[in-house]
């Protein structure tokens, strides 16, 4: 292809009798861009339809009339989530549809003492290309979560304890256990009530399971009085593989000095007694105890199966029984109970040990295989699959596809689905499909294999642009025009070279037929070619044109009569740089208007960016049609004074100038440091509009605008010669000075 292009270009040059200078454009380096190597501009392909089911469905908390659950969102392209629920012997039913990215749900329709099962799936709304109707495709389901609501007013927190590993002796809740009081207000002086108290602990131990030791503490009411203090050992606990523990604890407390009346401690709260428990199912343990106190606010129930204690429930006063649900089968649990009130926590109750029974073995029956799989090509890139669902227990179907012999997963669809549209396929290609039903980790046998040939793609070749011409307007400006010969392009790619190495200088929209290249140098030969493109597909190239820019001419004759002496040097620089307009190069001390400065700042923007700005269309203003104003609006440099007015003849303020210059700089120069730290405050800073503070300080920090006597005068007007000076400063500040006079 590349050789063909070179021959075409050579023929064009010969026919136009345009000699090529071997020093500046060696014939051997003429390499027009190969369409196969053009940059990918657009990728219209959709993401794969496969998306992952939710993971890690678990319980947050369960109350009598509330179940809170959460899961991990692993899908990427879902548009919704569906929560389903059933009771012990019921069928799953949808209870809530949630928006995309949801990761939790609170079910307030539950009743006390009921066992519920939950599962969640992701869904994606999409249009069926065959019917034109919106359909919902579903992922597989999450894991199933079993939850039993409490019969009392307590709260079950967390979910089943996972990955339990009991190694050696199970630890009892000793001094490290610090139950957290639920929203209790502690008196501010409670923390010092027994601050100087002492605890003495005596413990006896023998080699067969008794210990001896002593210790001291700072009293029962550490940490604002809510530490339960030293806990008595629960008599004897026999654990397979360990000895028998026994012992006593004695506490003695002394408080020297006197205490104020506010420091009085309420009567000690008595610990619950007779804690007993029984496993009533593989996931539930029923607990009961004697309430020995008459001043408690409630009870704190702690549980462990690993040696690490956790809060199992917070219960109301006078409660004497509780069913702990959502446990693991065939697991030994240990429980202890505390009573508490506003100011204190009891010692612990006795400990109980209960083992849940083994889970009943459930036989998972693999789903029956789908039958009569058929595939039909609906377009060059679409195949519609249909099959017969022969199972009544599947969770969904997995669709596999190949065109090479290497099978890949094409989609996962929900239960009871019997059709699927596979898109983004290759035209004129043979594909093979197979479908499996699945439930959990059980899979059906495969369906029959369906074979289908996608249709040939209709010709969508783009017609290349024609009649490309180039005209050197100035030493630094080339005007290009061409004819748009296609009606289905997404845009145009414009290439340029002066060395033989082609580069993209512009990516333009559809129907564009002109472009001004202002990033050229004087007295230089350039070559141009243009392509149309649609998606990733380019047309063939246009004709190639050659143009040599003229030499730098002498400075334009400008009459500087009336200009201030301090401004003459900057005005002459502006002429050399081409940063001026004829309309403002007179009456230099006259205040500049919004329209006049807009024309000036657009020249600056185009110089810094290296390409011509494009006017916005349609025109949003009713009071101007100035092309430069529309260019500045399109580039984000200016906005209007209202929804549809620009007020072109209004005088521009210094803060407005700072804002326009800031936007022109950041919109055309990469990696601009916009930090304004270190800029001193102005004595008239309160006069700066909040929308312009950063831009004004940026101008000051970069020596673009200067104030006077610590003032910046943000609302003053600016003369024409001052405006030109500001633009020249910006150009020199943000342009490589070595390149300015080339």
Summary, kept brief:
By secondary structure, this protein is of the alpha+beta class. It contains 9 helices and 34 strands.
List the helices and strands and how they pair.
Elements lengths: L1 H14 L39 E9 L2 E7 L7 E8 L5 E7 L4 E4 L7 E13 L6 E8 L3 E4 L7 E2 L41 E5 L9 E5 L4 H4 L47 E9 L2 E7 L7 E7 L5 E7 L4 E4 L7 E9 L11 E4 L15 E9 L2 E7 L7 E7 L5 E7 L4 E4 L7 E10 L2 E2 L6 E4 L12 E9 L2 E7 L7 E7 L5 E7 L4 E4 L7 E10 L2 E2 L6 E4 L19 H10 L16 H16 L17 H8 L19 H15 L24 H9 L18 H14 L3 H4 L2
Antiparallel strand pairs: 1-2, 1-9, 2-5, 3-4, 3-6, 6-7, 6-8, 10-11, 12-13, 13-16, 14-15, 14-17, 17-18, 19-20, 20-23, 21-22, 21-24, 24-25, 24-26, 27-28, 28-31, 29-30, 29-32, 32-33, 32-34
Helix pairs in contact: 3-8, 4-5, 4-6, 4-8, 6-7
- How can the largest sheet be summarized? 5 strands, antiparallel
Please provide the count of β strands: 34
Number of distinct helices: 9
Give the class from helix and strand content and strand pairing. Answer: alpha+beta
Amino-to-carboxy terminus distance: 38 Å
**Overall geometry:** flat
Poorly predicted ranges: 1-50, 159-266, 737-742
The whole-number mean of residue pLDDT values reads 76
Radius of gyration: 41 Å
């Amino acid at each position: 292809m590349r050789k063909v292009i070179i021959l075409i270009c050579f023929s064009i040059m010969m026919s136009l009798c345009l000699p090529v200078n071997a020093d500046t454009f060696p014939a051997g380096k003429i390499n027009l861009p190969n369409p196969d190597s053009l940059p990918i501009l657009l990728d219209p392909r959709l993401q794969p339809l496969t998306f992952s089911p939710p993971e890690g469905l678990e319980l947050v908390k369960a109350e009598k009339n509330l179940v809170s659950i959460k899961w991990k969102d692993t899908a990427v392209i879902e548009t919704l989530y569906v929560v389903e629920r059933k009771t012990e012997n019921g069928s799953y039913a949808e209870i809530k549809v949630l928006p995309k990215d949801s990761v939790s749900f609170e079910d307030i329709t539950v009743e006390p003492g009921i066992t519920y099962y939950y599962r969640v799936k992701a869904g994606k709304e999409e249009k069926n290309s065959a019917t034109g109707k919106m359909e919902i495709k579903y992922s597989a389901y999450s894991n199933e979560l079993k939850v039993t609501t409490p019969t009392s007013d307590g709260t079950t927190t967390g979910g089943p304890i996972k990955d339990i590993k009991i190694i050696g002796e199970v630890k009892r809740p000793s001094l490290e256990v610090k139950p957290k009081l639920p929203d209790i207000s502690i008196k501010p002086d409670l923390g010092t009530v027994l601050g100087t108290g002492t605890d003495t602990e005596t413990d006896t131990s023998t080699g067969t399971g008794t210990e001896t030791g002593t210790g001291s503490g700072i009293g029962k009411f550490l940490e604002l009085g809510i530490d339960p203090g030293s806990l008595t050992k629960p008599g004897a606990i026999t654990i397979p593989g360990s000895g028998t523990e026994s012992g006593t604890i004695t506490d003695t407390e002394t408080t020297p000095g006197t205490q104020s009346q506010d420091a009085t401690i309420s009567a000690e709260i008595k610990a619950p007694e007779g804690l007993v428990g029984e496993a009533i199912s593989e996931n539930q343990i029923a607990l009961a105890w004697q309430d020995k106190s008459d001043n408690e606010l409630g009870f704190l129930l702690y549980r462990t199966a690993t040696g690490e204690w956790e809060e199992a429930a917070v219960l109301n006063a006078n409660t004497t029984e509780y069913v702990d649900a959502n446990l693991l089968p065939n697991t030994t649990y240990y429980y202890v109970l505390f009573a508490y009130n506003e100011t204190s926590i009891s010692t612990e109750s006795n400990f109980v040990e209960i083992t849940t029974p083994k889970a009943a073995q459930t036989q998972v029956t693999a789903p029956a295989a789908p039958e009569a799989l058929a595939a039909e090509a609906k377009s060059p890139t679409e195949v519609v699959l249909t099959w017969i669902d022969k199972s009544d227990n599947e969770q969904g179907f997995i669709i596999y596809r190949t065109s090479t012999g290497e099978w890949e997963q094409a989609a996962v669809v929900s239960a009871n689905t019997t059709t699927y549209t596979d898109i983004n396929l290759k035209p004129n290609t043979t594909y093979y499909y197979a479908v499996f039903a699945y439930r959990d980790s059980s899979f059906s046998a495969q369906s029959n294999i369906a074979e289908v040939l996608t249709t040939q793609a209709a010709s969508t070749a783009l017609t290349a642009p024609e009649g490309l011409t180039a005209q050197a307007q100035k030493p630094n400006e080339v005007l290009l025009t061409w004819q748009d010969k296609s009606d289905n392009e997404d845009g145009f790619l414009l290439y340029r070279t002066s060395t033989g190495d082609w580069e993209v200088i512009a990516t333009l929209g559809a129907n564009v037929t002109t472009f001004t290249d202002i990033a050229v140098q004087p007295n230089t030969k350039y070559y141009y070619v243009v392509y149309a493109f649609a998606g990733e597909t380019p047309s063939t190239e246009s004709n190639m044109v050659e143009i040599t820019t003229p030499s730098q001419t002498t400075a334009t004759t400008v009459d500087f009569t009336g200009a201030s002496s301090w401004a003459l040097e900057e005005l002459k620089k502006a002429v050399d740089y081409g940063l001026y307009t004829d309309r403002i190069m007179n009456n230099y001390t006259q205040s500049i208007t919004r329209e006049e400065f807009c024309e000036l700042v657009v020249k600056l923007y185009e110089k810094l960016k290296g390409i011509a700005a494009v006017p916005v269309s349609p025109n949003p203003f009713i009071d101007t049609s100035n092309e430069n104003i529309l260019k500045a609006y399109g580039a984000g440099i200016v906005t209007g004074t209202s929804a549809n007015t620009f007020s072109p003849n209004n005088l521009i303020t210094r803060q407005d100038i700072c804002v326009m210059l800031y936007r022109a700089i950041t919109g055309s120069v990469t990696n601009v440091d916009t930090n304004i730290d270190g800029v001193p405050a102005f004595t008239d800073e309160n006069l700066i509009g909040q929308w312009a503070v950063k831009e004004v300080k940026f101008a000051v920090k970069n020596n673009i605008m200067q104030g006077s006597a610590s003032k910046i005068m943000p609302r003053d007007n600016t003369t024409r010669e001052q405006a030109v000076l500001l633009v020249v400063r910006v150009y020199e500040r943000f342009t490589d000075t070595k390149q300015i006079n080339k």
